[in-house]
Amino acid sequence: MGGGLLTPATPQEASEIELLNAMMGGTLDPVHALRVLRKHNNNLDKAATALLEGDTGEGESNPYADLPNLEPLDTPTVGPRTPPPSRPEKPVIDLTKDDDDGELARALQASLEDQPPAFGPSNRAPDPNWAMAEVTGPVGMSQDEQAMSRAIEASLTFNVTEDLYEELPLEERIRKGDTPVALRPTASGVSYAALLLHALFFVPQVRNAIASWLPRPEQGSEESSIAEITPPTNGPGWPVWTMLELFANMDLARLSELSVDAALNAFAVEPWNNPADRPGDSTFRFYEGLVYAVEHCLKYNNLRNPERKPCSMGRTTPNPTISTQTILCCVKVSVGMNPEVNDLVSALAAELAPDPAKLPFAKRQVIMTPSDVIAFQLLRDVAPPPYDAAVGRRTERALFKYPKTVYLDQFMKESYDFANEKRTAQRRLIQEIKELEHKKKNLLYHNEKDTLADLQSALHYYENVAESDSESKRAEEIRINQEKLKHIIETVKAEVTSIDATISRLKSDSEGMLDCPELQEHRYDLRAVIVHDGLYGRSHLYSYVKSKGKWWKTVDYVVTEVPEETVLSDPTGLHLGAGPYFLLYSRAMPQAEEDARAPWHESLKDAIKYNNQIFFEQLPPEVASQVVDPNSPPSSPRVGAAPSEQTINEPDTADLSEARGEPMDTTD
Q: How far is Cα 164 from Cα 28, in angstroms, rounded to an integer?
């Protein structure tokens, strides 16, 4: 790294080092960055390239090289550090240098193959740190090729500085009505964890169970009352208490966004720093650990559950012949492997109850006791979409369908035999449909030719082209051929119409075979969907959640209402092997019960009310005068309550020594 003491970084250099650190995954040594930056005469582009190539900064002309190796007192402080991404096996394509060897052109050509890209000057705002070129698709590209081109363009024009945490002014952080609160981490690599915690709040069973939980006092300490609770700071109770405070703030706080940096310290969150990895895998592991901690605390460390009754938050008991201890808090579902099972229910049936004719030795799994909550991780292959050379275009991935309501009865032990009979009958109907479709194909095609079209062409010939030359025998022959062709065409059309009607009826019977009252006792409703658009960064992961009958989309700090159809048919990320990757369902309940406010502890409500008032006092007077807090009527006097140490809203402004005052007035 070179010897000697470096002169302290200037403010400009400190800013550039922070940017370099973000580019390198948050693990860059600031002294190392300063040496490399100065070695290249403070040229940020060259310094970034040098760091990617492993430059250590050796050889810099340093006027203080004869001084001992001492750390400067004001070494620039950079952002939060996270583990570096895996080292790529292939050389990195450097987008900051001149493309003399055509490396970028070859990469684009490999992606679009038959459509060479057109390069042009970028119309983005000038950026002194990066110089990018935008790519536009050539005229005549199909719709899916244009979508692929746009995806490549987005990945090439992505600037790491655009993914840095942006802190909004206070006046832009006012929650509007019942709009959900966004959860935001500073580090982009843990955005998936924030989205999962955010989604769990909108599962009413999870929200109510967490709100009703209170930790038992530690062994050896005095038995505390429900009114006096000591928050745990370690062990499995710590993450559950963190969720309790976080959820209460999401319900009652008047900020439109909450920082979760402090909250995530309570969870073992692994960062998603490698764009080649699937965020769904990290989400699955995080959810699995979270479910275990929550169920453990709700049963064994719950002041409000002295009988230690079990609480099923996301675990189900499968067939005991397989394993009585298997955790099915999240079911992994393969997507896109078979077009015949490209929906959630069919995919579950293929995995839990496979066809005996195709897999005679496969084990049948049943659910012994269904949980209140069930999650699904949608697994997609990471290979790029196939290229169809015959038609000269990339084939579009089919949209995986998941319903807003699903019934699990057909997979439960109590109704498995009945469901299996229905499923067997369904397979017979599907086989009949295939046979009819084959018969229809034989009627309409012969040797890859359209038989009906050929017959109609022949009829056209005899009706409009053939001439009798005034010969009665020839005229009669033409007439007879016309009649025969008309009869054959009408017969074929009638047969095809009959086949189509039968296929339509059989499909309707097949699709509704399992839709019967006997298999519709255990209904689960969709609560949340988490989506990845295929690229890397905080803005490329987002979620849909349902709150009080409305669906909301959350991208970083932006929360907008969307129609239900958008949630159930979002095609984002299909061309990049991405898309919706995590689904949360829970037992159906009456709408009034679903929308009811959770029973938050009084001390939490007091703390949040106090924080709301501190927040309002920091707003400009003209803005604060227009803000209405539905949780604290304007007639309520100011209170002197202090928030707990883990309260999310503006903790630096709270005086922890103050006594609690007037309780929060809440309205549903």
A: 16
Rounded-to-integer distance, Cα 31 and Cα 455, Å: 83
156 within domain boundaries: yes
| Residue where one domain finishes, among candidates 143, 163, 183 | 163
457, part of any domain: yes
Q: Which of 514, 667, 521, 496 lies closest to 596, judged by CA?
A: 667
Residue 639 has pLDDT above 80, yes or no: no
**Dist CA 33 CA 83 (whole Å):** 17
Residues 6+ apart with CB under 8 A from 524: 374, 405, 406, 407, 408, 585, 586, 587, 588
Close Cβ partners of 94 (under 8 Å, ≥ 6 residues apart):
49, 52
Distances from the Cα of 309 to the Cα of 243, 291, 315, angstroms: 21, 16, 15
Residue 400 Cα distances to 335, 373, 407, 577, 578, angstroms: 7, 21, 18, 12, 11
Q: Which of 262, 287, 275 is CA-nearest to residue 199?
A: 287
Distance of CA 221 to the CA centre of its chain: 43
Is residue 304, in this structure, part of any structural domain at all?
no
Provide the residue range defining the domain that includes 459. Answer: 431-511
> Which amino acid does the sequence have at 32?
H
β-pairing, 257-259 vs 182-184, is parallel
- Domain membership of residue 576 (yes or no) is no
| Angstrom distance (rounded) from CA 297 to CA 293 | 6
**Cα 613 from Cα 593, distance rounded (Å):** 29
Q: Within 10 Å of residue 470's Cβ, how many Cβ atoms?
A: 7
* Domain count of the fold of the chain: 3
Give the C-alpha separation, 68 to 157, whole Å: 44
Residues with Cβ < 8 Å from 563, sequence gap 6 or more? Answer: 551
Q: Which residues lie closer than 8 Å to 270 by C-beta, 6 or more apart?
A: 282, 285, 286
Q: Which residues contact 639 (CB under 8 A, 6 or more apart)?
A: 606, 609, 610, 613, 660, 661, 662
The DSSP result for 131-178, as a single string, is ---EEEPPTT--HHHHHHHHHHHHHHH--GGGGS--PPPGGG-B--TT
- pLDDT > 60? residue 660: no
Helical H runs in 309-415? 344-352
Radius of gyration of the chain (CA): 32
Residue 138, pLDDT score: 46
The domain boundary, picked from 492, 511, 530, lies at: 511
Could you give the CA distance from residue 537 to residue 164 in angstroms, rounded to a whole number? 9
Overall residue count recorded for the chain in this entry: 668
Its pTM stands at 0.67
Burial (Cβ within 10 Å: 0-12, 13-18, ≥19) of residue 201: buried
Percentage of the chain surpassing pLDDT 70? 70
pLDDT in tens, 351-402: 888 877 777 676 777 777 788 999 999 998 655 444 443 344 444 568 899 9
Does residue 315 surpass a pLDDT of 60?
no
Instruction: Please tell me the number of Cα atoms within 13 Å of 502 on its side-chain side.
Output: 17
